[in-house]
Amino acid sequence: MCLGIPGRVVDVEDGPLRLGHVAFGDVVKEVTLAFVPDAAPGDYVVVHAGSGIEVIDEEKARRVLETLRILEEP
Amino acid sequence: MKYLDEYRDPAAARRLVEAIRGLVTRPWNLMEVCGGQTHAIVRFGIDELLPEGVRLIHGPGCPVCVTPIELIDKAVAIAARPGVIFCSFGDMLRVPGSASDLFRVRSEGGDVRVVYSPLDAVRIAAENPGRQVVFFAVGFETTAPANALSVLEARRLGLANYSVLVSHVLVPPALEAVLGSPDRIVDGLLAAGHVCAVMGTEAYHPLAARHRVPIVVTAFEPLDLLQGIHMALRQLEEGRAEVENQYDRVVRPGGNPAARAVMDEVFRVADRAWRGIGVIPMSGLVLREAFAAFDAERVFEVEGVGGPESPHCRSGLVLQGLLKPQACPAFGTLCTPDNPLGATMVSGEGACAAYYRYRRHGLA
Ligand code: SF4
Q: Which residue of A43, B71, B133, B184 has the fewest C-beta atoms within 10 A of its own C-beta?
């Protein structure tokens, strides 16, 4: 339950709840984006119990991966 | 999948393991707080890759596991009432109460439904005006905002037939209890990334300073965990005790202000019993007085409901990192996921379930 998974925002419907669709691989779910008011289609968000709790900072994600990949080189 | 598979690269993991080996000069005990981290560690065998003497200890970070038995009994009592639709995350159905569980209530004809989100329960309430719909609001700071939002949404829709059975627990007071214990064996902490995504990292600075303990906010994939372990061990070897953020692609220092605001509007902090551990001061959330009409405990008057734990279950020790699951005499014999004695054997994040699933082989 605490293990939120990242998904890609497909669409956003503004309203009292700010609902949207988020794709986790091939599975698309309706989630509330009330807590991530800036999340836009194409963004990756971490989703818990049907609500987005944070947008993933792609720049930082990429930086960490690059650091980790440098480790691969002997 | 993006931001999952990338963090499972075996070659990078091997190099990180080597970097950890090059760093360590003496034994250290690290506690991973979150049950999701425990499952990833056991599943990917991360604990077995670490140098001799570096131990990972499982923390109390599984909300299913720490929901007090009294609340399971209350859930069972409410769900068994005629006319009630009881909604819950699937994890909670098999958690044993003192005499029954929600799964059994369902097999005996109770209307117990598994929902993906508390807003699904609100929708069910709107569609069934003649029935009482109750949502079992469990979880740490991660699920509390969504559960709070469901109460606000029910109020906005004017629903008089929606209520929540609240069993929310907070992580920092539990860590205070672990770190302040006279039996403490923990040298460093891997803090739960998603709790911090909501709450931020500020609450951890006084903990790190007061108990002289490094705290590294860590995510859940193998490379994340190895990097978090590396960061915590480097601090220990250098004699530092700071808060560091391995998961800064998601966790901001102030957390998520919109989520915190909704939580604060609906809930207030109160003392809370943790299953197997006991009462920890100011470690839970309850509904504010303004939302009393949405409080299932008041709507259904279940005061005084609740029985004792199984005498065989040692989950309190498991949750505090004092006992490995296989060391429990009931593990895999009296207690299995199909017939669990304690919540730690049930939950997708429970330590006993993790060992049963991934480490049973080779055990007598
Ligand atoms: S193995 Fe079962 S009985 Fe033993 S501590 Fe875990 S949940 Fe409790």
A: B184
Distance in angstroms (rounded) separating the CA atoms of residues B11 and B238: 27
| Chain A, nearest residue to B349 by Cα | A1
Taking contacts as CB-CB distances below 8 angstroms, the residues of chain B near A47 are none
**Measured distance CA(B98)–CA(B83) in Å, rounded:** 24
Give the closest residue to B245 by CA, choosing from B232, B258, B233. B232
pLDDT digit string, tens, across residues A19-71:
999 998 889 999 999 999 999 999 999 998 899 999 999 888 888 777 776 66
**Which tokens go with B263?**
């939580």
Say yes or no: A60 contacts chain B, CB-CB below 8 A.
yes
CA distances from B115 to B37, B42, B90, B287 (A): 24, 28, 7, 21
Residues in chain A: 74
Q: How far is the CA of B98 from the centre of ligand 1 (A)?
A: 15
Contact B356, B328 (CB under 8 A): no
Check if B314 has its Cβ closer than 6 Å to any atom of ligand 1: yes
Q: Is B318 a pocket residue for ligand 1 (Cβ < 6 Å)?
A: yes
Chain centroid, CA B253 distance in Å: 21
**Can you tell me whether residue B176 is helix, strand or coil?**
helix
Q: Which residues contact B10 (CB under 8 A, 6 or more apart)?
A: none
* Residue of B324, B331, B347, B363 to mutate, ligand 1, most atoms within 8 A of C-beta: B331
Q: Which ipTM did the prediction report?
A: 0.88
Whole-model pTM: value is 0.89
Question: Best of B23, B117, B262 to disrupt the A interface by mutation (most A CBs within 10 Å)?
Answer: B117
The predicted-structure confidence for B134-167, as pLDDT tens digits, reads as follows: 999 998 999 999 999 999 999 999 999 999 999 9
Nearest CA owner, ligand 1 atom 3: B313
What is the pLDDT at residue A72?
Answer: 53
**Is the model's pLDDT at B361 over the cut of 80?**
no
Give the model confidence (pLDDT) of B64-74 as tens digits: 888 888 999 99
C-beta B58 within 6 A of ligand 1 = no
